[in-house]
From TrEMBL:
GO terms for molecular function: DNA binding. GO terms for biological process: regulation of DNA-templated transcription. It comes from the Bacteria. CDD domains: HTH_ARSR. It comes from Sphingobium psychrophilum. This is Helix-turn-helix transcriptional regulator. The keyword DNA-binding applies. Gene3D superfamilies: Winged helix-like DNA-binding domain superfamily/Winged helix DNA-binding domain. Keywords: DNA-binding, Transcription, Transcription regulation. Residues 17-115 form the HTH hxlR-type domain.
Amino acid sequence: MTMPQPLRIGDAYNPDCPTRHILDRIGDKWAVLVLLTLKDGPARFNDLRRRIGAISQKMLSQTLKSLERDGLVSRAAFPTVPVTVEYRLTPLAGGLIRILDQVTQWAESHVGAIMAARRAHDGALADAMAA
């Protein structure tokens, strides 16, 4: 019987590595969009859904629960009729938002080059398939 290897933090190639789990979370497009939307301030569920667009109610709910579990988003319920629920970034999310802002700026600066590379690649692929 093989003994399980001790978990090494930072071994992102190991599927059980905590670092990998966190990278998977912040690599998820919905999580990134929720975090970037909340950087403007607290928001209610339907406001988030409207601002993000193209996200289902189920996916937004799952994403918010995951982000809350990870300590990146907090949820506050207010005793109104019906209950008002508001989501906001936690202090832990602050450093991540700065990194996501840098990634967003890089993407906006390079989107033209990336789209041109895609068109060139797709054209070459189409030409090769036609030959």
